[in-house]
Amino acid sequence: MAGFRQLVESGGIDEFVVQRFNGLYHLFAINRNCGVSYYLRERRGDYKTWTTLDRAAAFLYSINITCFSVRCA
């Protein structure tokens, strides 16, 4: 997550998306200039997930992100 925070702080991300998939929420970020998307991963290599949207939003707020999209699959 530290690498993700650095990317956020450096301005390397244009858009944040929280997506619901199989009952869990995942976060990915998009850098439109490079055409790259990033999923947030935990140290053990698994994708970071949240059970509720408000917990995912709380994480984003903790890194000073107040605008993001939500997609439901």
N-to-C order of helices and strands? HEEEEHE
Question: N-to-C terminal Cα separation, in Å?
Answer: 24 Å
Q: Helix coverage percent of residues?
A: 10-25%
Low-confidence runs of at least 5 consecutive residues: none
**Rg:** 12 Å
The biggest beta sheet reads: 5 strands, mixed
DSSP summary, beta strand count: 5
Based on secondary structure, the structural category is alpha+beta
Describe this structure in words.
It is a single chain. The chain has 73 residues and is an alpha+beta fold. The chain is 25% helix and 34% strand. It contains 2 helices and 5 strands; from the N terminus they run H-E-E-E-E-H-E. The protein has helices at 2-9, 53-62, and strands at residues 15-21, 24-31, 36-39, 49-50, 69-72. Strands 1, 2, 3, 4 and 5 form a 5-stranded mixed sheet that branches. The longest helix has 10 residues, at 53-62. The model has no long low-confidence stretch (mean pLDDT 88).
Outline:
The protein has helices at 2-9, 53-62; strands spanning 15-21, 24-31, 36-39, 49-50, 69-72. By secondary structure, it is an alpha+beta fold. The longest helix is centred in the last third of the chain and has 10 residues, at 53-62.
Topology of helices and strands:
Elements: H1 2-9, E1 15-21, E2 24-31, E3 36-39, E4 49-50, H2 53-62, E5 69-72
Please give a handful of descriptors for the protein shown.
73 residues, 2 helices, globular
